[in-house]
Amino acid sequence: MDYQNQKQYYSGKKKMHTLKNQFIVLPKREDIVDVYVGKLGKTSDIGLFRETRHKFNVEQKFIGDKAYIGDNAITTPYKKPKKSEISQLQKEQNKQLSSRRIGVEHMICRVKRFRVASEKFRLSRHRYNRVIMAVCGLVRLRLNCSWFLSVNN
């Protein structure tokens, strides 16, 4: 692989070659709505969201972490300014937002349990998309089965 092609996958933040995934999840860990898999490692989270935004309704609102600051459609926590503190009200709002987002983090954790998205991927790069989608399918299958069992009991 030549240098220019390899450079596209290098993430300066992680200091390694990476592929990025983005999960859009319903609140309260109900289901995975959308998965964007295998984007180049140097792409920012907000840039990745802006590329996939067209799939959703214009009025749709989202909740994101601090990596998604800068888009009106996404509610993000308040960031502490340099050499200053955030107010007590902002801290409380951050806590409320975090309690709503925890379901998303748990869903991402379920995908990472399969260790495909969290460790070095040792297969060829063109297979990454299919493997991640299969893992997401297994997570969704388990979610639907557990939902079905709780409704029928």
Query: Main sheet, how many strands, which sense, barrel?
Result: 2 strands, antiparallel
Shape: globular
Rg (CA only): 18 Å
Briefly note the structural class of the backbone: alpha+beta
Number of strands: 6
**Percent of residues in helices:** 40-55%
Strand order of the largest sheet: 1-2
User: What is the terminal separation in angstroms?
Assistant: 55 Å
Strand content: 15-25%
Number of helices: 4
Q: Which blocks of ≥5 consecutive residues have pLDDT under 50? A: 147-153
Mean pLDDT: 82
Spell the H/E element sequence: HEEEEHEEHH
Oligomer: single chain
Structure, described:
The protein has helices at 3-7, 45-52, 88-112, 128-152; strands at 10-11, 16-17, 19-25, 32-40, 62-63, 74-75. With 153 residues, it is α+β, with helices and mostly antiparallel strands. The chain has a two-stranded antiparallel sheet. Strand 1 and strand 2 form a beta hairpin. The radius of gyration is 18 Å and the shape is globular. The relative contact order is 0.13. Residues 147-153 have low confidence and may be disordered.
What does this entry show, briefly?
This protein has 4 helices and 6 strands, in the order H-E-E-E-E-H-E-E-H-H.
